[in-house]
Specification:
Blueprint (H helix, E strand, L loop, with lengths): L1 H18 L2 H27 L8 H4 L2 H29 L4
Helix pairs in contact: 2-4
C-alpha cells in the first residue's frame, strides 16, 4: 500500500513539474490556436462561402472572413520568416 502511494506521489510530482515547462505551455497554446483556426475556417466555409452579398463590409467580406484572411496571412509570413532564417543559418560560419 505504501509503495503504491509513493508511486502516485511520484507521478503527481513529475506531472506537476512537467506542466510548469515553457515548452508545455507553448504546445498547449499552439494546439488551441490550431483548433481555433480549423473551427473558424470550417465556420467560414460552411456559413459564408456560398453566399456573396456586396452590401456587407469591405467588398462583400464579413468580419469573420477578414479575421481568417489575416490569420492565414500571418501564418504565411511566419513560414517565410522561418525559411529565411533557415537559409541564413546554413551559410553562417561564425554563428
Amino acid at each position: 500500500m505504501a509503495s503504491s502511494l509513493s508511486l502516485y506521489i511520484f507521478i503527481y510530482v513529475v506531472l506537476s513539474n512537467f506542466r510548469g515547462l515553457t515548452l508545455f505551455y507553448f504546445t498547449i497554446h499552439l494546439q488551441v490556436s490550431y483548433i481555433a483556426f480549423i473551427l473558424l475556417y470550417a465556420y467560414v466555409i460552411t456559413m459564408f462561402f456560398p453566399r456573396f452579398d456586396s452590401s456587407q463590409t469591405f467588398g462583400g467580406l464579413s468580419a469573420v472572413e477578414l479575421i481568417l484572411y489575416f490569420w492565414i496571412f500571418t501564418i504565411i509570413v511566419e513560414e517565410i520568416r522561418q525559411v529565411s532564417l533557415m537559409n541564413t543559418s546554413r551559410h553562417c560560419v561564425t554563428c
